[in-house]
Amino acid sequence: MKQRDKIVDVFCRIKDSARMDRFLGEILTDAERHDLALRWKLMEMLENGMSQREVAARLGISLCKITRGSRVLKKRGSVCRTLIKSKNEE
């Protein structure tokens, strides 16, 4: 089993949000957690109709980071887009 497959398996086994939070705190630095949260936030903002420039201004990040998130959301079958949409429908 590849290392990447192992970590995916670990993520899939964690069902409790508090435990997931603890796990992420153990394997990621504060900066890595911040970057991950920021990436998710910008994709939520884009999926909810905000322009790339407005996202950049609100979050204080470069258009390059936002463009990557935008590309992810435009891909056919994007898991991120599906997850954001399902969260919005709750």
How would you characterize the overall build of this protein?
The structure is a single chain. By secondary structure, this protein is an all-alpha fold. It has one domain: TrpR-like (Trp Operon Repressor, Chain A, Orthogonal Bundle). 78% of the residues lie in helices and 0% in strands. The chain is built from 6 helices and no strands. It has helices at residues 3-13, 17-27, 30-47, 52-59, 63-74, 79-88. α3 (30-47) packs antiparallel against α4 (52-59) and α4 (52-59) packs across α5.
What is the class in the CATH system?
Mainly Alpha
What are the low-pLDDT stretches, counting only 5+ consecutive residues below 50? none
**H/E element string?**
HHHHHH
CA-atom Rg in angstroms = 15 Å
* Number of separate strands: 0
Query: Biggest sheet: strands, sense, closure?
Result: none
CATH level 4 superfamily: TrpR-like
Q: Tell me the CATH topology.
A: Trp Operon Repressor, Chain A
Mean pLDDT: 93
Helix content: over 70%
The tally of domains stands at 1
Oligomer: single chain
- Strand-residue fraction? under 5%
Shape: globular
CATH architecture: Orthogonal Bundle
The secondary structure category is: mainly alpha
Number of helices: 6
Distance between the termini: 36 Å
Concise structural overview:
The protein is mainly α and 90 residues long. It has six helices and no strands. It starts with a helix and ends with a helix.
Write the topology of this structure.
Layout: H1 3-13, H2 17-27, H3 30-47, H4 52-59, H5 63-74, H6 79-88
